[in-house]
Amino acid sequence: FEAFRADLAWCSATLTEISATLDLHPKSPWGARVRNARAAAGVRLSRRLRTVDKTLARAFPDRRIHVVGMVTRDTPRLDIDLKGREVRQAEAACAFLAALRGPAALLGCEAERLKAAESAVDRLFDRADQSVDAIHGGDLEVEPSSGDARGRAAHARAVIGRIADLLEGLDADQAARTVRRRIATSARSQPPI
């Protein structure tokens, strides 16, 4: 990922320097090449930005639980592997969004980046909120994972903590602080087992 970040910084710096030092006519051969390179990079980045939401959904999925009789509802899965491939992909997607913060405007995909970042922050914050509610609602009691209740609760709080880390990486510091406060509150309000 660091190579991508370095390449992105080089591309944006080069395009900025070309724009600042040369007065290129848009219809000249050089002007057309620079415009086409900028547009091609923007299209590729926009395509990648559209996959961020799906990546986050795969990393932090739902599971269906039975409430009573035939009534079911979705609740966050809190037994996910924090070192798993999907979580690593979600971390990379959030780092990708953060890396595009400056160069996206120059490459013509700032609107898409803002939309993807807002969607990611909303999804992560909602997931953290639902997860804390699941802990308080006792949904850990029906977790299919093994281990005692304290271990399941600690792992669930670790999952929510990872979501808070991703929110911080997206510069949603207030949302991350709120999530961390709710985690701390859920840890204190856990009854002794």
Written overview of the protein:
The chain has 193 residues and is mainly alpha-helical. The termini are far apart. 69% of the residues lie in helices and 7% in strands. Helix 6 (110-136) runs parallel beside helix 8. It is elongated, with a radius of gyration of 21 Å.
Specify the overall morphology.
elongated
Write down the overall mean pLDDT: 85
Describe the biggest sheet? 2 strands, antiparallel
The low-pLDDT segments are none
| DSSP summary, beta strand count | 2
Amino- and carboxy-terminal Cα gap: 43 Å
Sketch the topology as an H/E string, one letter per element: HHHEEHHHHH
Gyration radius over CA? 21 Å
Features:
193 residues; mainly alpha; 8 helices; two-stranded antiparallel ribbon; elongated
Question: How is this fold's topology laid out?
Answer:
Elements: H1 2-21, H2 29-49, H3 52-59, E1 62-68, E2 71-76, H4 85-99, H5 103-107, H6 110-136, H7 149-169, H8 173-188
Briefly, what is this?
This protein is mainly alpha-helical and 193 residues long. The protein has 8 helices and 2 strands. A hairpin with a 2-residue loop joins β1 and β2.
